[in-house]
Amino acid sequence: MQLSALFRAALVGQDLDYLATTDDVAFGLDGEGRIAMFNDASLRFAAAEGGGERALPRLGQGYLAVVPDVLRPFYRDLFQHVRASGVAHSHDYQCSSPTRFRLFRLRVQPLTRDDLLLIHRLVEVREHTMQRPPEPLVIAAYRGEDGLIRQCAHCRCVRRVSSPATWDWVPELLGAPGMDVSFGMCPPCVSSYLRSSRAVSVEG
Ligand SMILES: [Zn+2]
Fold first, then answer.
1. Residue 101 dihedral angles phi and psi, to the nearest 5°
2. Do 102 and 121 share a structural domain?
3. How far is the CA of 91 from the centre of ligand 1 (A)?
4. Could you tell me the distance, in angstroms and rounded to a whole number, from the CA of residue 168 to the centre of ligand 1?
5. How far is the CA of 150 from the centre of ligand 1 (A)?
6. Helix, strand or coil for residue 192?
7. Domain range holding 136?
8. Residue 117 Cα, ligand 1 centroid: separation in angstroms?
9. How far is the CA of 51 from the centre of ligand 1 (A)?
10. With 0-12 CB in 10 A as exposed, 13-18 as middle and 19+ as buried, what is 96?
């Protein structure tokens, strides 16, 4: 576990053995939203997801900088809300890998007036039920005029250029080398995310 000296005081009363040994991915954020603590599970997770050295968390790094653009306003609001209300929140989100459907539960807990503890716990993992389109893969069908493939930040489906309302599950495109991706959200994820963010504000 890596921890900035100032953040140690914010963690008084927390179970440090749990944070150090759990498979839950934990981050501590200071009042500026910078990473002031991360545990070994967060390093293992980032390494397993690929992206190399640059994808690994660092103390002092802005947490939202590594969140896809499309999700940033949601998390900025959520963190503000938790700080202002002093009440912890949790919601589920999908973060699938090419081979597995994965559902995570994020708990955002206020530690002090400024400091937050974020715990990402894997709550469901199973085979994907989404089928990839039966046609042979034509990468150009998903590459926009800007050369980018538009990928849903949650379920990782990709948008069809000829039919922008259609997002396909194409696991072959995920993590393929040289694939330039921009993040968006597919219609089903927009509706489930809005539902979950509404639940967050109602709970508070
Ligand atoms: Zn989606």
1. -75, 130
2. yes
3. 16
4. 9
5. 11
6. helix
7. 130-204
8. 26
9. 21
10. buried
Kindly report the backbone phi and psi dihedral angles of residue 152, in degrees, each rounded to the nearest multiple of 5, phi listed first: -65, 130
How many A from CA of 159 to the centre of ligand 1? 10
Number of domains in the chain: 2
CA–CA gap between residue 63 and residue 42 (Å, rounded): 13
Q: 14 C-alpha vs ligand 1 centroid, how far in Å?
A: 34
List the structure tokens of 142.
């998903």
Ligand 1: centre distance to CA 113 (Å):
34
> Among residues 128, 147, 176, which one ends one of the domains?
128
Residue 30 is predicted with a pLDDT of 97
Answer yes or no: do 34 and 121 share one domain.
yes
Distance 192 CA to ligand 1 centre (A): 9
The SS3 assignment for 47 reads helix
The string of pLDDT tens digits covering residues 154-204 is 888 999 999 999 999 998 888 777 778 898 989 888 877 766 665 444 443
Instruction: Among 128, 152, 187, identify where a domain stops.
Output: 128
**What would the pLDDT profile of 47-77 be if each residue is shown by its tens digit?**
888 777 888 999 999 999 888 888 888 899 9
CA of 56 to the centre of ligand 1 (A): 24
How far apart are alpha carbons 2 and 5 in whole angstroms?
10
